[in-house]
Request: fold
Amino acid sequence: MLIKKPTDIPSSEITPKSAFLNRRKFITGAAATGAAIAAGLYLRGMDGGKAEAAGTGAKLAGIVKSPFSVTEPQTSFKDITNYNNYYEFSTDKYEPNGLAANFRTRPWTVSIEGLVKKPKKIDIDAIMKLAPLEERIYRHRCVEGWSMVIPWVGYPLSNLLKQVEPLGNTKFVAFETVFAPDQMPNQKRSVLPWPYVEGLRMDEAMHPLTLLALGLYDETLPNVDGAPLRLAVPWKYGFKSIKAIVKIKLVENMPPTTWNISAPDEYGFYSNVNPTVDHPRWSQASERRIGESLFAHKHPTLMFNGYGDQVASLYSGMDLRKNF
Amino acid sequence: MLPLREKLIRTLKFLGFLLFLSPLALLVWKGFHDRLGANPVDVITRTTGRWTLIFLLLTLSVTPLRKLSRLPWLIRFRRMLGLFAFFYGSLHLMTYVWLDKFFDFPMMLHDIIKRRFITAGLTAWTLMLPLAFTSTSGWIRRLGGKRWQTLHRLIYFSAAAGVIHFIWLVKADLRQPLTYCAILAVLLAYRIVVWAVAKLRSKASLAVVEAGSTTK
Reply:
């Protein structure tokens, strides 16, 4: 339909008689700046990817190397701590670093409860000493299509779970992040249903690869990365590795998980890294490795993020398209 | 010699041109100084996308501003603003085609079909294309003012597709895209109101004429 309008605009107004910048000039200028940005980014790419010294955390002693570590170049401490999703602080990936700076990680206790013989509330300092600390250099794949190689410090989650003596009918483990709206600004708003909850199947939780991460680059975990303790489940998309844990509950039924509640068609309970199952927003076939040059090609994403040898058997007989 | 007013407008336009290039200049500066963060492609994509939307909304603000403030010369900025929207939109698209997909056309086609936010974004850019192409005075003459104006109403649909593109790509927390959406809604509502008032007025004047003819 044509909208009729009174002709109160003289055509001389619609048509500037002498445009200061004609189109050609504009395009030339645009092309020149475009070339400049390309050059700038190219130069930036050339010195990218260098690893810097770690931050201000306390040095962790007695760390042993793990055979589970990968040998790929590690993502710099700066990038790991300045680019991540921590929606409790911000939906922007660059902001959590500043916003989490004064997050209080002491006193901190973790309650382990549910279908267990000995429910416990364990202090973080006791958790730190529960088992020998290992360095585990893991690939970390975000569901958004970027990835890092992160030198976590911690020990298998199974060490902690064994403390409470799980009962035979336990099938799943539910995890909960701290709810501290006075410290976590986004928890005052309904960005996601708070507190953040995640879950693993019992065999996944007890798997030797499933790490209770307490440190990074030989130091205590930076606040921005989920201090004082978080999971690192390397064959699953990053959001499964819940941060700042305060509660672990052993249960019989599959527990709700935050992103699945928020968008069930996008995020499944399992969320295993799988290049053949496309996400509605992002292709999962490849990933951008953080720290590499702007013009570096993406890496092909590996099934189970490259940990298939260790974990594929957990899912034998399961349709991973349905159980995405 | 140009009249003072004309000189002033031209100076303002030149300053505007520099100002409107500054988001790109800042991006280039950050590129040279390693300040684009851990994921530079992400930053470039977001920055160019944001400025495309801002320039689209600025372009759509010219008419209401010009009328409400009674500053008719503001129209002289409209073409430049529109072309800047197209310019940043093209940089945004280039970032996707080059740095995100590395010219993998089958992959992009899959994206366009499968991901509705990509479909919306590409629609928004495609709708700007004929407008940028016919932005010259020559094209206004060739098409004629009326037809040109009708064609350029495509900007309403381009801006709407752009805002929808933003809403659909956000995972959670819609505050930012909804802000753009609200501004666009106000700018479009202004046009609907103007149109409706004009229509009512013409009806009323018609009724007066008719009433006059019956009393005769």
Observations:
- Chain B is about 85% helix and 0% strand.
- Chain B touches chain A through 58 residues (CB under 8 Å).
